[in-house]
Specification:
427 residues; alpha+beta; Jelly Rolls; 6-stranded antiparallel beta sheet
């Protein structure tokens, strides 16, 4: 029996004595000043510290295998245990060989290469989009923003890309979204449709570029041919043999959902792997076991928040990781700002916090129940099992009230408080 498996069994048995699942119990390490902290900040080039993060994740999440993969030359990426393995490039460049007939839901930003032919919209989906277009005036203002983002993906007979993120955002809004029952029903029907539309098919095989921030997936006995020099963080769900998304998600072919900034900062937010749900209000984790959002986070817009041990939608608790990227290859200017993260390891004592400088190749492990706020950092935010709906608790107002402003908070986040009593969320 492996050390990780023995450790998991010991924790489960100990937790059972007090009636709390092991995955919900926090772990601590000694901090710089002798205080305990459940947070880990490591550089992926440092094997021993990374091995500790690997053990924490693999013991908390069954059937998850975590690794660092280095490519130097030409090779094949594979799942080590026949599962679904996701690779996130964090350093370097290369190419991936995508065969003739390969289908992808990328698109909506830069056009896909000329070898791709977009699939035409079928009659049923076209009717749904037409109804939504005619019914825009019946929507609430917030719902209209999400629906218009979906409709912008349509160009004549073609619909481009994956709109799971727009549906995730729509699902968070109060219902009804429309005062017209037909339009409301059409919106609900999108949750059945979105995984089947927006594809383009490759007409000839060939290599295509990949770079830091891009994502690749190998499933079952599949071999994904790559070449170049790059490094990846990888996670494999060993009991999954099929993927619910396509092999490659390149940032340049994904819609940027960041919007603009009224201050000196380059906005960026693209979602290689986001939360999938079959219907509004879905409980449990469904097909999700990890998500990835690549974001350039300005301190002005970053609210301090945490993910509770117990989610409103059930399933496993949410662990978050910052995989820090270099903004320059993506044409982003850091404006001389220094990347860092602020962490609140004990939410019962908000006078205690940590702040860590960040650089490309760093990985920050943030377990459930830890407050965090990224500052001026370009990062691939990874979450296990994913960005669960209704699972962010915003605490800037709490920090101000409890510390008198002595601990760092974001004044722009004070109005985002979304709970009554903090202690009720810490059980």
């Amino acid at each position: 029996m492996s050390l990780t498996r023995r450790r998991f069994i010991r924790q489960t048995a100990a937790a059972a004595l007090v009636g709390v699942p092991a995955v919900l119990r926090s772990r601590s390490a000694i901090g710089k000043e002798g205080e305990t902290s459940p947070v880990r900040k490591v550089h992926l080039g440092d094997r021993q510290p990374f091995a500790e993060v690997k053990e924490l994740l693999e013991s908390d999440y069954a059937e998850l295998n975590v690794s660092v993969v280095e490519v130097d030359g030409e090779t094949a990426l594979r799942a080590d245990h026949g599962g679904m393995k996701v690779f996130w490039v964090y350093q370097g460049r290369g190419d991936v060989l995508l065969p003739k007939g390969y289908r992808t839901q990328e698109g909506g930003a830069d056009p896909l290469p000329g070898a791709y032919e977009p699939e035409k919209i079928d009659a049923t989906f076209a009717e749904t989009l037409d109804l939504l277009q005619r019914g825009i005036g019946s929507l609430t203002a917030e719902a209209a923003v999400r629906v218009e983002a979906i409709l912008r993906r349509r160009q004549g007979e073609v619909f481009t890309g994956d709109f799971a993120a727009e549906l995730w955002s729509l699902e968070h809004l109060p219902r009804p979204w429309s005062k017209d029952n037909q339009v409301e029903a059409a919106l609900v029907s999108l949750f059945d449709i979105y995984q089947k539309v927006g594809y383009a098919t490759k007409q000839s095989a060939g290599y295509e570029p990949i770079m830091a921030g891009d994502q690749l997936i190998a499933c079952g006995d599949e071999a994904v041919q790559v070449r170049g020099r790059f490094r990846c963080l990888a996670m494999e769900k060993t009991d999954r043999t099929e993927s619910h998304i396509s092999t490659a998600r390149r940032l340049q072919y994904l819609v940027d959902t960041a919007g603009g900034c009224s201050f000196d900062f380059d906005p960026y937010r693209r979602l290689p792997l986001t939360w999938y749900m079959d219907h509004p209000g879905q409980q449990g984790d469904g097909v999700n076991f990890v998500n990835a959002h690549v974001v350039n986070i300005p301190q002005e817009l970053s609210s301090t928040h945490f993910h509770p041990h117990r989610s409103q939608v059930g399933g496993l608790p949410q662990t978050e990781m910052y995989l820090v990227l270099d903004p320059k290859p993506h044409g982003l200017d850091d404006k001389g700002r220094k990347a860092s993260i602020i962490l609140y390891p004990d939410l019962r004592d908000l006078t205690r916090y940590e702040q860590h400088a960040l650089e490309p190749g760093d990985l920050v492990y943030i377990p459930p129940g830890v407050g965090h706020r990224g500052l001026d950092v370009f990062v691939n935010v990874l979450t296990v099992p994913g960005f669960k709906p209704h699972n962010e608790v915003y605490i800037d107002q709490e920090i101000l009230d409890r510390t008198g402003g002595k601990s760092p908070y974001n004044e722009n986040g004070l109005a985002r408080k979304n709970y009554d009593r903090l202690e009720d969320l810490l059980q």
